[in-house]
Amino acid sequence: MVRSTEEIISKHIIKPSSPTPKSLKTQQISFLDQIGPPLYIPLVFFYEAKPNVDHAKISEPLKQSLSQALSHFYPLAGRLEENSFVDCDDSGVEFIEARVHAPLSHFTHNPKSEELRQLIPVDSTDHTTLTLVQVKLSFFECGGFSVGVCCSHKIGDYASYAEFMNAWATLCRGEPLVSLPSFDLALRLPPKPSVMVHHTGEKEEFATKRLVFDAKLLQKIKAKCVCDEVKNPTRVEALSAFIWKMFIDATKLKRGPERSSFAAFHAVDLRPRAVPPFPDQTFGNCYVGQFAFTSGNGMMGDLVPSLRAAIRSVDADYIKNVVSGDDYLRIVDEANESFKRGTTDLCCFSSWWRFPVYGVDFGWGKPCWVGTVAQPSQHLVLFMSTPEGDGIEAWVNMPLDFSDFIQTGYNHLLTGVGFPQFNGGSS
């Protein structure tokens, strides 16, 4: 990999266009925020060149509209205190401008996570910085540009920041916001006086692969996942089963066939599942993780019922009785202890598919591609939308020695030479 050279043009601190009222200066975070990972959510939005649009005509409107957006999303311009609340002191967010000596296509053609790191403003694992949001605007030789953002996972999830990015873009186009964010999650899920954050801070060695599944491939996988219990699996269920099965068989091959306890963690959005539903604009870590388990001896289709059951178990009663009390924290603690002992092999899934990131149009057209940067976990799978909207990009973190096995399984599916043959038979 050859890193493209760049020049930093400028650095600014962008503050809200209007001061935050005193009554809103202290913003409590929910207990799900408290246990959230001390990481940034990194996203890079790529925009193709437009004629007769120079750098100033891009950077100035972006900075002005960001200032306006922060007046509505005022906690993002504050500072997290004591893992309990945000001091909404209008300190602002960092905005970096850079010139990259490479074309946009260098990053979007066969993108690699390690190259995309150059386009985000900060190491996504470095949460020692106080700023909750950081932005990097990069101009390419071809005239295109990218907007890289790192947003603190301590106070918001992917859905929260998709809402923020679309609001910022709306204001940059000179249009009024049709909806405003809601910062009342702590009222629904109050913070706890003492909460353990499960994050070691240790950086694991892993490989990251971006596997693209178009609509045709997804349909092929869905067809293989049909079973008596699930006649019509969703795309996310089927793709999760496909990748989980590859992880299971890679584990048995590389770690020993005696491995017999496997878990899949799926992040589940609470907003539509509560009764009444939480507003779509609810800002915060409004999700829980649910676990599906298997001995690993079955076929791919056998995994779908347990995945569906885990995801669908998050209903109104679950939210009321488990998430709203101490039971969920106990479940998380017990699960973490099991994984630390090494008796269960875990694969984590988070679906960012179909969130409206391709609608983030600042006035120069919609992004031609939206990418991310690998998070520091060797068993993490992120699902993102393709530009066409009907496919899924899977960003798969895996142990280094799993890389060839998983790439081969994907290639078999992609080339049509036959469905991947896993240990224990095909599915």
Describe the structure.
This protein has helices spanning 31-34, 55-72, 105-108, 113-116, 158-172, 185-188, 215-225, 235-255, 303-312, 316-323, 327-341, 403-415; strands at 6-14, 26-28, 40-47, 79-81, 85-87, 93-100, 133-139, 145-152, 207-213, 262-269, 287-294, 345-351, 369-372, 380-385, 392-398. It has 427 residues and is of the alpha+beta class. The two termini are 37 Å apart. The relative contact order is 0.16.
Keywords:
single chain, 427 residues, alpha+beta, six-stranded mixed sheet, 12 helices
Question: Can you describe this structure in just a few lines?
Answer:
By secondary structure, this protein is α+β, with helices and mostly antiparallel strands. It has helices spanning 31-34, 55-72, 105-108, 113-116, 158-172, 185-188, 215-225, 235-255, 303-312, 316-323, 327-341, 403-415, and strands at 6-14, 26-28, 40-47, 79-81, 85-87, 93-100, 133-139, 145-152, 207-213, 262-269, 287-294, 345-351, 369-372, 380-385, 392-398.
